[in-house]
Design a protein that fits this description.
The structure holds three protein chains of three kinds. Chain A is α/β, with parallel strands linked by helices. Chain A is built from 14 helices and 17 strands. A six-stranded mixed β-sheet of chain A has the order 1-14-13-17-15-16. Chain A has a four-stranded antiparallel β-sheet with strand order 2-8-7-4, with no helix packed on it. In chain A, helix 2 crosses helix 5 and helix 11 crosses helix 14. By secondary structure, chain B is α+β, with helices and mostly antiparallel strands. In chain B, a hairpin with a 2-residue loop joins strand 6 and strand 7. Chain B contains twelve helices and eight strands. Chain B has two domains: about 55 residues, Orthogonal Bundle (3-methyladenine DNA Glycosylase II, Chain A, domain 3); about 180 residues, no CATH class. By secondary structure, chain C is an all-alpha fold. Chain C is globular. The chains are: A alpha/beta, B alpha+beta, C mainly alpha. Chains in contact: A-B, A-C, B-C. At the B-C interface, helix 1 and helix 3 of B face helix 3 and helix 5 of C.
C-alpha cells in the first residue's frame, strides 16, 4: 500500500516488510485483571540497576518506591500494586540471563500510595524534571534509557528540536498506535512537558503514514495549542530508529558514534510522553505500560495495559492462550525483538510487545556463505557494510570490525531481512559489539593503568 | 698470476669492508636491550618471516618487549622455545604440567534443552541469544568454540559436549578464554578426579535439566581425605592443590555419576566401560 | 638517452617485473606479505638497498671488473668472473654499514626500514639487478635507475599481493589450499595478469 506522506528527506536504505499490524490494530487497549503474583525485575533500565529499598515481608502500596536509583544513569522502581513482598528471587530475564526480581503478592485492594501532583504549567523546569526522574521513566520504545538523563543534556549541547517518535515501524506492534488514537491528549501533554524541561520551541511528532487516523487524532486533539507539528512519514523500516527519524524530519545527520544531542535533537517515544503526562499531572509513577500481544499463534491478539512484573505466560492467557504449533516467542517486535527462553520472564518498562510465531514463520535455514551481492550494503540504514563486517566477525577480526564501525550497528535487522544467503548477520554484529566493547574496556583499563603509573 | 691477483682483490676487499664495519660499529654503537641479542641467538635464524615479524631480530625484539609469544615462531624446536621462555621469565615456574578440563558432563543425551537454537554455530554467539538453548544455564553449549581455538586439536565434541584429551593438551589456556560459560579450567596433570558440573543452582533445579549434575550430597567429601574435596554452595569441587586418589569415584558412589576420574560419563559410556569399571581395571 | 631511460623505467616496473616475471625475490614476497604494513616497510627497504647496491656495484664494475676497466688495462687480465662474489661481498658489507649508521643517526627511518635491511642484503633480487646491469653493460646512471625502478616494481608486486592476502584471510579457502598454497596460486594468477604488460616494450 502507498500512503501520502509529508516528509521529503528519505534516510538511506531500509526495507518494507509486511507489517501484520491488522492482527491487533483494531483492538482497544484493555486493562488486565489483578494477578495473584507480580515478579518485578529490578534492573529494567540501561545503566546501573536500582538499589532495593524493601525486604521480604514488607508491605507496599501501589506506586510505592521499592528501589532507588544507584547512580546518575539509573531510575527508581515502584510497586505495581499494593500487597506484601513475598520473596526476593532470581528469574530468567529478557536477555536469557538471570535477573534479580522482587516478588509481590497483592492484597487485592490495589491501593495507591499518596500521589504528589504537579501543575506543570506553573512549576519550574527543574521541578518537572525531578518529578519525571522520581517516576522512574525510561524510554518505552524498547531501549529503556532513563528519560530524565535524556532530558538533561550537558550545557555545551544546545537542544532546539524535540522529536516525538510515533513511527512504530516495527511490524506487528500496535501499542503506540492505540495510545495515539485513544489518548492523543496525553501524548501531546507529555510532549509539551518535555519541551518545557528542555526549553525548546520546535516540537515534531513523526508518525508513519500507514497510521493516518493517528495523525488526524493528534492534530484534532489540539496539537496546535501546544505548538506541536504532527508529520506523517514515509512507510519504511526503520523509520522509527532515532537517527533515521531525526534525518527524515530535520535533515540533520547524527555523526557516526554520536548522539542525537550532537545535532540539537532529543527524541522521545509516544509511550514515554503518555507516561510523563501521568507522572507529572497525576503523580503516577511508571508501573504499567501498553503491550501488544500478537502473532499468528495467539488466539485473540490485543493491546493490554500490563503492570510491570506480569509474567509472559499470564499475558498470553489474557489473549486466550496460544494455538498449536508455536515455534518462537519474542519480546518486542519481529525485527529487533529478543527470542525468549522462558515464559516466566516478566513485563518490563521496555516491553513493547509479545509476539508468538509459528513454525512456518520462523527462519530455519543453514548458515550459507556470503555471495557478495551487496544487497545488505544497499539496505543498511546506518550505511555500514554488513557483508564484509560479518566476514570479519566469522574470522574473529574484531579489530577490522571496529575500524568499519561495527559499533554503529543498531541491530535493526534490515540486512538479515534482505540477505539471499540467509546469513545471521545481526547475531554476528551482536557478537562483534560485545567483543569490541570488551576490547575497548580493556584498552581503557590499560590506558588508566599506564596513566596511573606515569 | 691471475689467481694471485684475484685472491688479492678479494682479500683486500674483505679486509677493507671488515675494517669499515668494525669502525662504524664502534663509532655508531647503539645501546640495546641485552636480552634481545640472547633471544636472537636462541632463535633459529631462518629469517623466514613466518612469525609475522620482519625476521628473527625483529621477533626477538618483540619477544623481549612482550609484544609476541614464543609460540609464534613456527620453526624453532620445543626445547628452544622452552629455553627462550624460561630466559625471558615467561614460563610458569612450577614443574607440574597443566591441562585443561571441561567441568560439565551434560551431553545432549544427558542434559535437556530449553529451546531449539538455529543460529551461528559458535558458543559465544549462541550465548548472546537468550543465553543459549541449553536448559542448564551453566552447561556446555557444545558448539565447539573451544575446539576451534585449540592449536593441537585436543578437544573433541562428543554428543554436544566438549571433552579435553589431556594427553594431547599443551595447557595453553586458549580454550579457557574462548568458553563463554567459564567451564574450562587449567588443572595439574596429576589431578584426575573431577566433578563434571559447574552449576550453582540448587540440586533439585539441576536435576530438572540434567541427568548428571552435582547435587551437593557430599558423599565424595566424606569418602575423600581431608580438604581434598571442597564444598562451594550447592556444588562440590576438587581441591586441585591437593587432589584426591583416582579411585575416589568408586569409593564415593556418586549418585548422579557426576564425579568421575579422567573423563565425564558421556565419554566413558562411549568407550563401553560403565563408570567405575575403568578405574578398577587399571588398579 | 631519454628514450632509453624511459624504456628502462617501464620495462623494469611493469614488463620485466622482478617478482612476477623474473621470479626474483620470491622469499620476501611470500614471507613478508601477510600484512600491508609490513609489506610497505619491506618495499621501502628494498627500494633503498637496490638503488644503493646498483650504484656501488656498477661503479665497481666500471673501474675494476669490466674487460675495459682501469684495473683490467693495468694488469692485462679480465676479472669479470669475480662479478658475483665481489657484488655479494660489497652489497652485504655496504648494507651492514648503512644499517649501523642509520640506527644511530636516523632511528626513525631505522625503525621503519632498518629491520628489513638484513633480510634482503643477500636477496636474489638485489644481486640479480647488479648482474643484469653488468651483463647489459650499462653505465653508472642507467644502472642506478634500473635498480631503483626494479625495486619500485618489486614494491608494486608486494603491495598488491599483500592487499590480496589480507582479503584472502577472510575467504573460505578449502583446507588443502590454506596457507602458502593459496598464496602461491594467487601469486601465479597475479603473474599471469602482469604478462599482459609484455607487449608494452619490445
Amino acid at each position: 500500500m502507498n500512503f501520502a506522506h509529508d516528509n521529503h528527506i528519505y534516510f538511506y536504505g531500509g526495507i518494507h516488510p509486511d507489517d501484520s499490524k491488522a492482527l491487533s490494530a483494531s483492538e482497544a487497549i484493555k486493562d488486565a485483571p489483578l494477578l495473584d503474583k507480580y515478579t518485578v525485575i529490578v534492573g529494567q533500565n540501561i545503566g546501573a540497576p536500582p538499589k532495593l529499598l524493601v525486604k521480604k515481608g514488607d508491605t507496599v502500596k501501589k506506586g510505592q518506591k521499592i528501589a532507588e536509583p544507584a547512580g546518575f544513569v539509573s531510575v527508581p522502581l515502584h510497586s505495581p500494586t499494593s500487597g506484601t513482598v513475598s520473596a526476593l528471587t532470581d528469574i530468567v530475564g529478557v536477555f536469557g540471563t538471570m535477573a534479580s526480581a522482587v516478588e509481590i503478592t497483592p492484597d487485592g485492594k490495589d491501593e495507591f500510595c499518596e500521589l504528589q501532583k504537579l501543575d506543570w504549567e506553573t512549576a519550574t523546569p527543574e521541578q518537572v524534571l525531578a518529578k519525571i526522574a522520581d517516576a522512574g521513566l525510561v524510554g518505552m520504545g524498547g531501549a529503556a534509557f532513563p528519560t530524565a538523563v535524556k532530558l538533561s543534556p550537558p550545557k555545551t549541547k544546545k537542544i532546539d528540536v524535540l522529536i516525538i517518535n510515533g513511527a512504530e515501524c516495527e511490524p506487528y506492534l500496535t501499542a503506540d498506535y492505540r495510545l495515539m488514537i485513544e489518548t492523543p491528549e496525553r501524548v501531546l501533554r507529555g510532549a509539551a512537558i518535555f519541551a518545557k524541561v528542555l526549553g525548546v520551541k520546535t516540537i515534531m511528532v513523526g508518525v508513519e503514514a500507514n497510521k493516518p487516523d493517528a495523525v488526524e487524532k493528534l492534530r484534532n486533539a489540539g496539537a496546535d495549542k501546544f505548538g506541536i507539528e504532527v508529520k506523517s512519514l514515509r512507510v519504511r523500516y526503520p523509520q522509527g530508529a532515532e537517527k533515521q527519524l531525526i534525518y527524515a524530519l530535520t535533515g540533520r545527520k547524527v555523526p557516526a558514534g554520536g548522539l542525537p544531542m550532537d545535532v540539537g535533537c532529543v527524541v522521545q517515544n509516544v509511550g514515554t510522553c503518555a507516561a510523563a503526562a501521568d507522572a507529572v499531572c497525576e503523580g503516577k509513577p511508571l508501573i504499567e505500560r501498553v503491550t501488544t500481544v500478537t502473532g499468528s499463534k495467539v488466539a485473540r491478539p490485543g493491546n493490554w495495559r500490563l503492570r510491570l512484573g506480569t509474567p509472559i505466560s499470564k499475558a498470553l492467557e489474557l489473549c486466550g492462550g496460544c494455538k498449536d504449533g508455536v515455534a518462537k516467542i519474542v519480546s518486542g517486535g519481529p525485527m529487533m525483538g529478543l527470542a525468549q527462553i522462558s515464559l516466566d520472564t516478566t513485563i518490563m518498562k521496555s516491553s513493547s510487545g509479545i509476539l508468538v510465531l509459528g513454525r512456518d514463520e520462523v527462519a530455519q535455514y543453514a548458515n550459507q556463505p556470503c555471495i557478495r551481492c551487496g544487497k545488505c550494503v544497499d539496505t543498511c540504514p546506518m550505511e555500514l557494510m554488513p557483508g564484509p563486517l560479518s566476514l570479519y566477525v566469522e574470522n574473529e577480526r574484531f579489530d577490522l570490525a571496529e575500524k568499519e564501525h561495527a559499533m554503529d550497528c543498531m541491530e535493526c535487522g534490515s540486512c538479515a531481512f534482505v540477505c539471499p544467503s540467509r546469513r545471521p548477520l545481526v547475531q554476528h554484529f551482536k557478537r562483534a559489539k560485545a567483543e569490541i566493547g570488551a576490547m575497548r574496556k580493556a584498552r581503557a583499563a590499560g590506558a588508566a593503568a599506564k596513566g596511573g603509573k606515569g | 698470476m691471475m689467481i694471485l691477483y684475484s685472491i688479492l682483490i678479494l682479500a683486500g676487499l674483505g679486509l677493507v669492508l671488515g675494517l669499515m664495519i668494525a669502525w662504524t660499529a664502534k663509532m655508531f654503537a647503539v645501546e640495546q636491550d641485552p636480552r634481545v641479542e640472547k633471544v636472537l641467538s636462541m632463535l633459529p635464524g631462518a629469517n623466514c618471516g613466518g612469525c609475522g615479524f620482519a625476521g628473527c631480530a625483529d621477533f626477538a625484539k618483540a619477544l623481549a618487549e612482550g609484544r609476541a609469544e614464543v609460540g609464534g615462531c613456527p620453526v624453532s624446536s620445543k626445547e628452544a622455545k622452552g629455553m627462550i621462555a624460561s630466559f625471558l621469565g615467561l614460563a610458569v615456574s612450577d614443574s607440574v604440567r597443566k591441562v585443561a578440563v571441561v567441568l560439565c558432563g551434560g551431553s545432549s543425551s544427558l542434559a535437556r534443552k530449553a529451546a531449539e537454537y538455529n543460529g551461528i554455530s559458535d558458543c559465544r554467539s549462541a550465548n548472546l541469544v537468550a543465553g543459549g538453548a541449553k536448559g542448564c544455564r551453566y552447561g556446555c553449549l557444545g558448539l565447539a568454540s573451544c575446539a576451534r581455538v585449540c592449536p593441537v586439536n585436543a578437544i573433541e565434541i562428543l554428543d554436544g559436549l566438549a571433552i579435553v584429551h589431556p594427553e594431547l593438551c599443551i595447557g595453553c589456556g586458549k580454550c579457557v578464554k574462548a568458553c563463554p560459560r567459564n567451564l574450562i579450567k587449567l588443572v595439574p596433570e596429576n589431578a584426575h578426579v573431577h566433578v563434571f558440573c559447574s552449576s550453582r543452582d540448587k540440586g533439585a533445579d539441576k536435576k530438572k535439566v540434567c541427568d548428571v549434575p552435582c547435587i551437593g550430597c557430599r558423599k565424595c567429601v566424606k569418602a575423600a581425605g581431608e580438604n581434598e574435596m571442597l564444598v562451594e554452595g550447592f556444588l562440590v569441587r576438587t581441591n586441585y592443590e591437593k587432589p584426591p586418589a583416582n579411585d575416589l569415584p568408586v569409593r564415593a558412589g556418586c549418585p548422579t555419576n557426576c564425579l568421575q576420574s579422567g573423563f565425564p560419563l558421556a565419554y566413558l559410556k562411549k568407550q563401553g566401560g560403565m563408570p567405575g569399571e575403568k578405574e578398577e581395571k587399571v588398579a | 638517452m631519454g628514450k632509453d631511460l624511459l624504456l628502462i623505467t617501464v620495462g623494469a616496473i611493469l614488463v620485466n617485473n622482478f617478482v612476477l616475471s623474473k621470479i626474483l625475490g620470491i622469499c620476501p614476497l611470500l614471507g613478508v606479505s601477510k600484512k600491508l604494513d609490513t609489506a610497505l616497510g619491506m618495499s621501502g627497504a628494498v627500494i633503498f638497498v637496490l638503488t644503493l647496491a646498483t650504484l656501488v656495484t656498477s661503479l665497481f664494475f666500471k673501474f675494476a671488473l669490466s674487460p675495459d676497466s682501469a684495473l683490467a688495462k693495468a694488469t692485462g687480465f679480465n676479472f669479470d668472473f669475480l662479478q658475483t662474489i665481489v657484488f655479494i661481498v660489497v652489497i652485504a658489507g655496504l648494507v651492514q654499514i648503512v644499517e649501523i649508521i642509520m640506527q644511530k643517526k636516523a632511528p626513525k627511518i631505522y625503525s621503519a626500514l632498518g629491520i628489513y635491511l638484513p633480510l634482503i642484503t643477500t636477496n636474489c633480487a638485489v644481486l640479480g639487478a647488479a648482474v643484469i646491469n653488468a651483463k647489459e653493460g650499462r653505465g653508472v646512471i642507467e644502472s642506478t635507475i634500473f635498480g631503483f625502478c626494479s625495486a619500485v616494481g618489486f614494491a608494486l608486486a608486494l603491495v598488491l599481493f599483500s592487499s590480496i592476502r589480507e582479503k584472502l584471510e577472510l575467504a573460505r579457502v578449502p583446507k588443502a589450499f590454506q596457507g602458502t598454497s593459496i598464496a602461491l596460486i594467487t601469486a601465479g594468477i597475479l603473474a599471469m595478469a602482469f604478462m599482459g604488460f609484455a607487449g608494452l616494450v619490445k
